[in-house]
Amino acid sequence: MRDHRQSRLRETSRDQGANQTGVRAHNERLVLSLIRRHVSLPKAEIARRSGLSPQTVSVIIRVLEADDLLVRGTRIRGKIGQPSVPMSLNPDGAFSIGLKIGRRSAELILLDFTGNIREQRDLQYDAPHVPDLLAFIRTGIADLIDSLSPTLRKRLIGIGFGEPFELWSWFDPLGGSKTEMEAWRNLDLDEELRGLGGLPVLTENDATAACSAENIFGQGRQFADYIYLFIGYFAGGGVVLDHSVHRGPTGNAGALGSMLMPPQTADGPDRQLIECASLFVLEAMIAEVADTVPNMASDHDAWDRYPDQVEAWLAMTASNLARAAATACAVVDFEAVIIDGSLPAAVRARLLARVRDEIESLGVRGITLPEVIEGTIGHEARVLGAASLPFFSRYLLS
């Protein structure tokens, strides 16, 4: 299993192949990755974009077709030369299971090779309780595997797992007991998952997984360098450089939730972004006026029931997101900041408009401010990114 902390190939190197026999596996991954990014490509276009010879591309296409990873499209007739045949990923070519464990919910999905969710299971809770979650995971994974025919079951290649690192350290804001959170410290969930079907398990930070999903399936495909912010129960993020998610030597790159923000009052302590741009902050504000606090990530109707608290939270969150984005751009010349989260679409749009206004009002000199872009995947970004990990481990270049 490749460690999730290892750096991945950059776009500048992965988009150029070589014709030597010794790099066949790399070239097969390159062809699959180009087709994935562009949905479908004819052989001539694959050769042009990859730098591989037409003969090498033809050999690779035959191998990938024989492995049921590619399918042929309808011939396209042009004015000159032979008609071209676009090649696409075979949705049934491979499958993976994605698991996301968060502070308020857990999700399981069965993902096909083109990124479509075939089956989905979820569990909501006030705080993550180990026995209940293990029961959900065992039953859910068995159900997902059973949903595939015996033939397709053989194409299930792994489990991608996304969770907040050191979940046990957040027992206070979660409202769970210290004993429950300590149970997470002693749990080897990777080993537990490997015992369910004998599949390889790849692990990723949940916010980084969300960033990967945006980079693969969302708006991120149009930008080479950007920062990504995901607003969930706790805020988190990721960094993309040269079209690849950058993790750093210890996996901490893009830990934007840990970025220091100004104190709330003149004599108060500095805060982290996670403390002033997260849904748990909004729920704490609602708790001051309501007997029962809704789960704002899943109860989208609740956003209309507490307009004053939502308004105050939006103002605070937008101000701090804008400051975080401007600060990050003083270090790396990012083209864009993409913001997504477990928010209703209308609320996300309001937040983006405020961030754009706030970032323009900061009066930052000496840098070009990034374009502020709305993410498109939403709540499922974390589990979708987790589920894509086995595909990149085995077949694709990230």
Question: Short description, anyone?
Answer:
It is built from 15 helices and 15 strands. The chain is of the alpha/beta class.
Textual characterization of the structure:
Residues 1-22 have low confidence and may be disordered. This protein has helices spanning 11-14, 24-38, 43-50, 54-66, 130-146, 150-153, 171-174, 178-185, 189-194, 206-217, 279-287, 302-305, 307-329, 345-361, 381-394; strands at residues 40-41, 70-72, 87-89, 95-101, 105-112, 117-124, 156-163, 201-205, 226-231, 235-241, 244-246, 260-261, 271-272, 336-341, 371-374. The chain is α/β, with parallel strands linked by helices. The chain has 15 helices and 15 strands. α2 (24-38) crosses α4, α3 packs across α4 and α13 (307-329) crosses α14 (345-361). 43% of the residues are buried. The longest helix has 23 residues, at 307-329. The radius of gyration is 22 Å and the shape is globular. It has 3 domains: 11-89, Orthogonal Bundle (Arc Repressor Mutant, subunit A), CATH 1.10.10.10; 95-209 and 382-394, ATPase, nucleotide binding domain (Nucleotidyltransferase, domain 5, 2-Layer Sandwich), CATH 3.30.420; 219-376, ATPase, nucleotide binding domain (Nucleotidyltransferase, domain 5). A 5-stranded mixed beta sheet has the order 6-5-4-7-8, with helices on both faces.
